[in-house]
Amino acid sequence: MVGAVRGQRGRKVARRPAGTLPAVSRFYLTTPIYYVNDAPHIGTAYTTVNADALARWHRLLGDQVFFLTGTDEHGAKIAEAAAAHDMAPQDWTDQTVKRFEESWALLEISNDDFIRTTEPRHHKAVQHFLQAIYDAGYIYPGTYSGLYCVSCEDYYTEEQLVDGRCPIHGRPVVEMEEQNYFFKLSAFEQRLLDWYGANPECVRPLTKRNEALGFIRGGLRDISITRTSFRWGVPVPWDDAHVFYVWYDALINYLTAVGYSEDDRRVAEWWPAAHHLIGKDILKFHCVWWPAMCMAAGVDPAPSVFVHGFLLVGGEKLSKTLLGRSGTDGERPVRLTEIAPAALVDDFGVDAVRYHLLRDVPLGSDGDFSYEGIVARYNADLANNLGNLAQRVATVVGSKCGGVGPAPGPAEGNRLAEAASVALEAASGAWERVAPHEALEATWRLIGAANAELEAAEPWKADPGPEVDRVLGNALEVLRIVSLLAWPAVPSGVTEIWRRLGLSGGPGDCRLPADAAWGGYPGGLRVEKGSPLFPRHRP
Ligand code: ME8
Fold first, then answer.
1. Binding-site residues, ligand 1, Cβ < 6 A
2. Which residue's CA is the closest to the ligand 1 atom numbered 12?
3. How far apart are CA 13 and CA 58, in angstroms?
4. Which residue's CA is the closest to the ligand 1 atom numbered 14?
């Protein structure tokens, strides 16, 4: 739609002078592609839900969004998992990938594409990309020996080990010696430093940028990028005996999905708008290897990587802790990787899970995941604040206005209109900084203000009339605006509020900032009370 956007009830809201074409603002967002050695867990759900909310926010802004997630299906780790289940790797991945797709559907993840690294389009892109690096002279044959952790699919030096074991997984490492091809990462030290100098915002938060710079300044060693010890990988185009090392194929997925090696125009449209959201465990790969690989292949590095922290259970990433719900067995110790998103949605509902992940663990820091945390946050913010506001307003509209919602009062001198505009500005700034928890905090302050106004005015005690209409109209308008602002986080819940307010379409059809301007609730709509939207959970 050019020149106008659709507001509530199909109302058109003018945004730019007639006749001018919009400059298309593109937003290409990726999650890591997850290993299919096992099912999805709450850690991978954390990244995916955060990315989904960010993608939804950009859709509200009217950006053209391409949101990608997917699975990383090659390498020793997947081959081992398949063998342990007496299955061929392809059969194993076909089976496991379904669990990812199902979990993301339950969590209402709105990805535009789902890439699997075993797809022909990806093999083709990997071979094309690495052939370009080979042809440019940055790949050479050699022998590698070192200590390898299969879980990380990475080599370690003696000094990096903790008690002789992998510092991340605590697993024993194995001595490996292989004839393989190496990538001249060492040739890119200065170019990477120059890139970071010229693009100060390309890795956020700043501490993570400094960590990447630390790696580079510490000296870069060439990397072995092919394997001959197994066949479960993308074949090396110039040497049949080798397959690519899994990380060397995986990173390229971000280019495959926008048509690399098949559609140069599409790459040129989307690649400059790429944003990678990743966990801190894979910083080195995304902030050192990946930009160097791009430089070697003659592609500009992705301009933006956002690095988040770990979700912890009982203070440790993979700790054992006593948790007795959600698919777990009584008081059996549980690892974070055993907490299935599908079971959580079953126990607490999709809005509760999404909201907890977005609101309680600030992106960039580590944070605790707990069942108690989900319940406490859900009861406080969704059941009490938002749920109560929606329920109370609908009830009083029923008793004082015959079930027909009045229009809000004018914005001038209206405290709630002011609070709504403050919330919009704060939420916009927070999403821009990739700080969903702050965006939600700002939105919930607006809900708090509306609840306080209702408490002060007590329309349930007053006689029907213009004053009651004004108070209720204002509260309905806050609910409409909150539904927009909270849609990226809790799309189901606020879409239902929207429907109950009598509005057509859904919050996701709106455009910000125009549709969040005060006065959009037209009045005269039938408001439905319904059953409590967010019934309280037992603590
Ligand atoms: O590393 N807290 O896949 P992976 C927060 N295939 N996020 C967590 C987490 C936790 N406790 N645990 C996992 C891989 N994650 C590679 C990626 S990309 C080209 C290839 C999230 O299945 C976080 O985003 O081990 C982390 O970076 C990712 O899952 C690792 O997923």
1. 32-35, 43-44, 46-47, 72, 250-251, 253, 278-279, 281-282, 310-311, 317, 336
2. 43
3. 18
4. 34
Task: State how far the alpha carbon of 370 is from the alpha carbons of 249, 329, 360, 362, in Å.
Answer: 35, 16, 10, 15
Give the type of residue at 245.
Y
The 10s digit of each residue's pLDDT in 352-372 is 999 999 999 999 999 988 888
The two most distant CA atoms of the chain are separated, in Å, by 87
Tokens 């005015």 sit on residue: 457
- Residue with tokens 């005269």, as numbered in its chain: 524
Rounded distance from Cα 539 to ligand 1 centre (Å): 30
Distance 279 CA to ligand 1 centre (A): 6
CATH fold for the domain made of 371-526:
Isoleucyl-tRNA Synthetase; Domain 1 (1.10.730)
pTM (2 decimals)? 0.91
CATH superfamily entry for domain 5-11+24-308: HUPs (3.40.50.620)
Answer whether residue 8 shows pLDDT above 50.
Answer: no
Each domain of the chain, given as residue ranges in start order, spans: 5-11+24-308, 315-339, 371-526
Atom index in ligand 1 nearest the CA of residue 309 equals: 5
